[in-house]
Amino acid sequence: MSVTEFAPAKLNLALHVTGQRPDGYHLLDSLVAFAEVGDRVTLTQAPLSLQITGQFAAGLSPNDNLCLDAARLVGAEVAITLEKNLPVASGIGGGSADAAAVLRGLARMGHPLPPAPERLGADVPVCLHPRPLRMQGVGEILIPLPPLPELHLVLVNPGIAVPTPQVFAALPTKTNPPLPPFPDRPDLARLVDHLHRCRNDLQAPAVALFPPIRDCLDALDAEGALLARMSGSGATCFGIFADVGAAGLAAYRIGTVHDGWWITATKLASAPGAG
Ligand SMILES: C[C@@](CO)(OP(=O)(O)O)[C@H](O)COP(=O)(O)OP(=O)(O)OC[C@H]1O[C@@H](n2ccc(N)nc2=O)[C@H](O)[C@@H]1O
Ligand SMILES: Nc1ncnc2c1ncn2[C@@H]1O[C@H](COP(=O)(O)OP(=O)(O)O)[C@@H](O)[C@H]1O
């Protein structure tokens, strides 16, 4: 029996850092949604192993990987193939998204989801049931959002692996205001307007540490993004565009001048029940 699970890229449409726990982890208030681009895991009943394929396979070790940690957490003997399409350490949940996909796949093969999946990573709970959510605590409090409008996106990564702890450590203030109330069933204009009133508190420290992130944001702005923002702790930035044509053209034009960047035009994955 073989099972395949998609591991969509996680996007922090907004990410407010509102405090810090005594153990050092930060309290977040974040709007999280998922894109149509992502990694893919395939699971087959066999002794535990991992094979990695795809554009970003070279950046990962097949011996030390969150996919293996996920399988071990539920005591599963499984051969895993990971198709690594997303850049590594890039603020779009790569490792956590993959671990969550392995857990979902193993659940389909008869291994119940483990208690406290956040042991694998703070982003694993939100990636377990990918849909638009407000994420609080250190990632374990998940509140569904109303359906979001269709969002045409361009994701841009300058080819720099960003260590998440370094960016959190560079935050000038740990207690920032929480998210404003989310509008009821927003259309594109209202959602963009709302997001402009939100922030990613990790963006300024990440840009200070890794200046090419600013170049990504500037490139998205220059192509007419309705909003350009970094996701998570970076370095991937997303731009929201008016329609599929505008997103495709922006991705193409940015690609013509930034050879080494990872650039993709995509959409927000539609949530179950979204209208
Ligand atoms: C910042 C976020 C926002 O969604 O995304 P990414 O940039 O990783 O995509 C996540 O909270 C990251 O989640 P994840 O990458 O799973 O975090 P973990 O492996 O548990 O933690 C990596 C390190 O990040 C810091 N960390 C993480 C989460 C959190 N709420 N507070 C923290 O301070 C800690 O220094 C921790 O040692
Ligand atoms: N399946 C995986 N995909 C990506 N990174 C992984 C994976 N397993 C372990 N890692 C490790 O986790 C670290 C964080 O990577 P990642 O989860 O992609 O970051 P982010 O959440 O910021 O996108 C990387 O340095 C990488 O070595």
Domains, number:
2
> If you average the pLDDT, what whole number results?
96
Low-confidence stretches: none
Helical region count? 8
> What is the ordering of alpha helices and beta strands?
EEEHEHHEEEHHHHEEHE
Bound molecules: 4-diphosphocytidyl-2-C-methyl-D-erythritol 2-phosphate, adenosine-5'-diphosphate
GO molecular function: 4-(cytidine 5'-diphospho)-2-C-methyl-D-erythritol kinase activity; ATP binding
Family: Belongs to the GHMP kinase family. IspE subfamily.
Pathway: Isoprenoid biosynthesis; isopentenyl diphosphate biosynthesis via DXP pathway; isopentenyl diphosphate from 1-deoxy-D-xylulose 5-phosphate: step 3/6
Function: Catalyzes the phosphorylation of the position 2 hydroxy group of 4-diphosphocytidyl-2C-methyl-D-erythritol.
Account of the protein in words:
Belongs to the GHMP kinase family. IspE subfamily. Residues 69-114 form the GHMP kinase N-terminal domain. Residues 188-249 form the GHMP kinase C-terminal domain. Its EC number is 2.7.1.148. The active site is at residues 10, 123. The protein has 275 residues and is α+β, with helices and mostly antiparallel strands. It folds into two domains: 2-143, Ribosomal Protein S5, domain 2; 147-267, Alpha-Beta Plaits (2-Layer Sandwich). 27% of the residues lie in helices and 29% in strands. The protein contains eight helices and ten strands. Strands 1, 2, 3, 4, 5 and 6 form a six-stranded mixed beta sheet that branches. A four-stranded antiparallel beta sheet has the order 8-9-7-10, sandwiched between helices. The longest helix is centred in the middle third of the chain and has 15 residues, at 94-108. It starts with a strand and ends in an 8-residue tail after the last strand. Adenosine-5'-diphosphate binds next to helix 1 and helix 2.
